Amino acid sequence: MKQINIKLFMVAALFVVATGCNDEFFDVIPTESMTDVTFWKSERDVEMALTACYNNWEMEEYPYYMDCEAGNGYSQYGWEGFLEISSGTQGKNGTYWDYGRATLWNYERITRYNTFLQKIVDVDMDADKKASYTTQVRFLRAYNYARKVNLFGDVPLVTQPFATPAEAAIGRTPAADVKKFIYDELQAIANSDALPEQNDAQAGGRITRGAAYALLARQYLYDKDYTNALANAKKVIAMPCFAIYTGGATPEENYLGNFRKANQSSSQEIILAHQRQTPSYTGAVWGYTLPSDYDGWSSVVVIKSLVDAYEMADGTLWNESYAEHPFDNRDPRLNMTVLNPGSTWDGVKWGWRDGNNNSRSGIYLKKYLKPYISMDEAWDSDADMPLFRLAEMYLTFAEAAFYLNQETGTALGYINELRQRAGHVPATALTEDLIRRERRIELCFEGLFWDDVRRWDWGSKVFKCNAQGYNFEHDLDANGDAVLKKENGTAYVDIYNRDYDYVTTGYLLMIPQGEIDANPQMKQNLGY
Prior knowledge:
Helices cover 42% and strands 7% of the residues. The chain contains 24 helices and ten strands.
């Protein structure tokens, strides 16, 4: 949101305290808290509470860290907790770091939203604003439940703040019932006149009708309801406020413009983003991805599996016979997404790095970086995090159309619009492999690949294998290109073994053990 400031952060923090900050029993405390006496009295109170609801409504780390779990990248530090799934160690050592996944289970956000929806009813304020604010928070709640049900399966469906922790000790609601709630909520939101038809730049990070239709399209696709996925994607695509971003001077600027602050204010492609405002509300994505000489940690890096998915420049598939120069003559989006030795960035050739806080795969994620990041900026990134883009709706349309055998020509046209805006050659036929490859490449590190792996049942492709990186010579060759060196017959290095038991778990994550211990009604997922 554009108007976040220190005062509103203090109010947001107060609101969080007022609606619960204890992990057990969904972080609730009695609603007769002291703040109820002095708060919820005016329209201004509601506006500050709405700001609190938007505060941290999605983790900034989620999109790119989840791709590390799903097989596109690697997160090298165990204390960050994102390596446990794909390595098959989640829960085995008795730990469950809440930096990411447990935070998604945590019900603090849900309690915050439920409290807002309960309290706003009795506030005397402008009727149109009340309807708009209520509808926005209903979306945030539906979004959070969609995350939860996709990751954990059956989850408690809580739609009102509880008066006591004892009342909150309930069991898990069947996933089908939770999804029905999500679909019903989103359909009502999308059909309401309370939200505008605007892109994210116009709406300033607020929820819009397009966002409601986009989440409907995404969830229907995940549930393989292709008819409804297609219908809702079409509604977003038809809105005149959205268009694929082509405002850059080069194909690279067109593709990466959606991820750079300087372009986001003019991009019509972003449907909804988690917005940041310097200096009070900035992110750490640069620090997580940059190497040590930029004061980064290299926590999120690309691995060979993703690089192999990119086509050659002529549209043919990658073949190991090209392995001497794996980054040359490829789909242009590869060099827009990855920094490898020999890449030009910051006006200089990107070299090989070794030692702590550098990539173990030998390559780095470029997608979210802007040029010329100083060491002082590494942990102060200002770019918004796109969570829904029109490009995703194009690919949702294409996948649904393919399985329904409807509008396949239009679907191929959408895919080619994405390929050609990045300078790649058009595809000639709509196939399942093309659609899946395009989703993986176009949307990589945007938080969607885990759910793609789950619904495509790609566990054998990404979880039962070694994650690999590249064994580079320390020096570039005379042409300034990276050189792979073979040792023991291979130029690749094994980073870690992926051995997640996706069959037993059904791609569901472990419920935090603290929730099981605190609530006798809570049962653990299989495989943990």
